[in-house]
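## Example record

The block below lists the input lines for one assembly entry, exactly as stored, with component labels intact.
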Amino acid sequence: MSYTDYIFEGYHARVAELQKSDNPFATGIAWTGGDYVPLHQATVPLLDNGFLKSDLSYDVPAVWDGRFFRLEDHLDRFETGMSKLKLTSPISREELRSRLVEMVAMSGIRDAYVMMICTRGLRYLRAYAPEECQNLMYLMVMPYLWVSGEETQKTGASIAIVRDTVRVPTGSIDPTVKNLQWGDFTRGILEARERGAQYPVLTDGNGLLTEGSGFNIVLIKDGKLVSPKRGVLEGVTRKSVMVAAEKLGLDWEICDVPVSAAYEADEVMMVTTAGGVMPVTVLDGKPIGDGQVGPLSKAIWKEYWDAHYDPAVTIPINYR
Amino acid sequence: MSYTDYIFEGYHARVAELQKSDNPFATGIAWTGGDYVPLHQATVPLLDNGFLKSDLSYDVPAVWDGRFFRLEDHLDRFETGMSKLKLTSPISREELRSRLVEMVAMSGIRDAYVMMICTRGLRYLRAYAPEECQNLMYLMVMPYLWVSGEETQKTGASIAIVRDTVRVPTGSIDPTVKNLQWGDFTRGILEARERGAQYPVLTDGNGLLTEGSGFNIVLIKDGKLVSPKRGVLEGVTRKSVMVAAEKLGLDWEICDVPVSAAYEADEVMMVTTAGGVMPVTVLDGKPIGDGQVGPLSKAIWKEYWDAHYDPAVTIPINYR
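Predicted structure tokens for the full assembly:
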């Protein structure tokens, strides 16, 4: 028995059903402007500046047990990101929402990782003004991805606070605009692997924590949750965690968090759409607290997954 | 009459010939692991981590008047870059060289921009060790690209030293590993456009110049050339410029260059494969010196293009 059974038992049953499916989209479906195609057949033109300059923004909502979770939060953030990069979606928000819902329904996938990417397109930005570039949209739905999977969540993940790489600063690339320029994260991932940790967390090179490779970091100390404010993506999962904290009557703050705070925390969580709220029990090779998943992490975790059934923040999918 | 006629007259004649060609590869040819395809038909899998994480390195040599220029320098740098990212080319250096030469020959393109990209491939790095990832190679040959074209070279380009964006620091992403994570350059390009300049040059946020969007910057003061040492790509064109300087008996140094040095320079050049040695005559809206292309820039420029016929550093292509 593990606290994680609460969601994983149902998840396993749905995955088993999905694996029996002969639906050609059961392993993923994509849209790249024309027809829907099986994900593994989808392609991007070699000349797309989303590839040749990583000139794009993206977002990732998830579907859990047949319900889109906080899709509007992701669409809001995606619109803001595109706007900051002077990208214009080739499709309206209504069409985007309805295609995503349609793709999930067609795939039959009940627990899905959903990606939307808007690229600059085939014209190179310097040669053309933003408004002269026909931006392109790529959409993907695939079976749910776990940054930290069931087994790791039971006992907690291990992270390393990275030494040789600092988070790209906000003066270079805006981390609130979700992007795929993962150079610092890639270096962090390689360092974590060398140091025997599963995930990296990066600092800002100026005494503060920022985030990990595709996840926000949340620390709990004396019953209060804190998470770094600057130099990070404004995570939807992080927002959900603070909503859960509020509900549980816990104090919380998004603020500057010194690196040392990670080493003094009672509990630590990695939070991201791909996996949710994932407890961390080892930091730089040493146990956090007693090395067990903490009680507040478990309480937040349960609130987080309960919210995936809250009609106020979910859209149920009408599977065919 | 312009100093630029020296190369552009021949170039125009060759472009006119190319435009008459009915060769399906005359507008570009690509290799993505299988058959050669016309460039505009070439695609990358949507799931390639070269797209989904910009996890890749690349390099760009050029062909001029039917000769590959400094190809070995580019292959050396590309190998070093792949090694630093723990990427392993799926093809040997010999095969890479011979495919590039073959592709140029097949295309009939006499003046070409050639790109080689090695991506992480379909496996995500955190889930798999580098050695477990089958890395992929993409090759492209297309008609020569000009960061600064003939007309601009005649009178010199205009640059802006960017204010709101700093170059991604070396502690985040290694600029000596040629990469497509252009977030800072993209911001710089947008700022330059807003300020009425053609190109951005970025600082390191710590009082020193770095480079521009895909080009190194070279300043000439009192007959000496300087170019920033840290936080930049170790440009092959920059190397060619220093070789040319040496030949002309000019002093040169790759070193820390304060931002103010740009405003005190006698002459300024942007240097990159896509266009070569390109004089700059306007900085932040004001003329540099007398606002004319300077004599040392012209001398370096001529040496640079003469070197494109030097058998020591070129490989002539055997067009069919």
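Chain B is about 30% helix and 30% strand. Chain B touches chain A through 49 residues (CB under 8 Å).
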